[in-house]
Fold this protein.
Amino acid sequence: MSKLGIFVNRQTMSSSSQLTALVKCRDVAESMGHTVEFIFPVDIKKIPRLDALFIRANTDPMNTTYVAAKMASMYGVPVIDDPMSIQICADKVNMYLHLMKKNISMPRTKFLSKNDVNETCIKGLFEELGTPLVLKEPSTSFSVRVEKASTVSEFIKVAKRFLKLTDWIVVQEYIESRFDWRIGVLNGELLYACRYIIPSETFKIQASVNGHIVYCDVESVPVDQIPPEVIDLGIEAGKAIGGGLYGVDIKESNGKLYVIEVNDNPSLEGGEDANYPDMFRRIVSYLMTGDTSDYADEIWPMAIGPYGFEGEYGLGADAAFAQGEATVENDVYSYKIDFSEK
């Protein structure tokens, strides 16, 4: 009998939706013949005695989730998320460079240091990338420290605030859409798909509006209603990061697809599994055996369905990918990253 550890913290357990998802995952694992133990940060010493570890707390190289992932990796315990995925996804500069290296379709993107935040440079960015521009602080998550700027003065104000926290900021062209696709990818295969419906009050999936937090609506989407191009792009973006579990956010605009970002430790508690009842079984199976089953082979033909190419959310015959820019030296400045195979 194998033992699965689910790494959690106080914040995870205080959310009713996350707690419900954790119980569902535990029940699925136990129905498969495994024992399950919730591992809190104080229990980290138990990790070497586990057969697998599933991290369900916010991941960051600066907190205990990364320590847990690193410890599991050192002791040969299969883990989601793995340390390398956490490192890459926790730093948006790092993440976008990985996507660029694999020519993944994404918004036109620049990386700026404090020396680049001047009127001449910013005017050039507006001329090249359009108005408004989206600024991101690289360590952000849940849409925090992601803002739009429509003028040079707005840009400078936001950039200076972000540069108090980091040496680099990400600047991207603005892609307008009423929803984001979220493609769940596990070991290079489709795990689930949903739409995140952007609140009308903002351009982000989560934002503070007049002192109140507004959240996106989540709509689980059957595989036969997902354009195959969206699935392909999500899988390729996940593979550009690694072989673990990822949530890939994709926007569709004017017949083109853009990867907005790749998230490690993606949300699994918002109803993403409504049309994918095997979601937790596949995660547990992958952790315990490295096998994601032939489920992807079973559902892939369904993507070529009545909604696959021409439906309400389809792309049509003229669909195309927007090409990410090459990582030439002048664009990425002196940012160093190790792309060698691990």
Q: What stands out?
A: The chain has three domains: 3-80, 108-174, 179-321. The radius of gyration is 20 Å. Residues 179-321 form a domain with the D-amino Acid Aminotransferase; Chain A, domain 1 fold (CATH 3.30.470.20). The first strand starts at residue 3 and ends at 7.
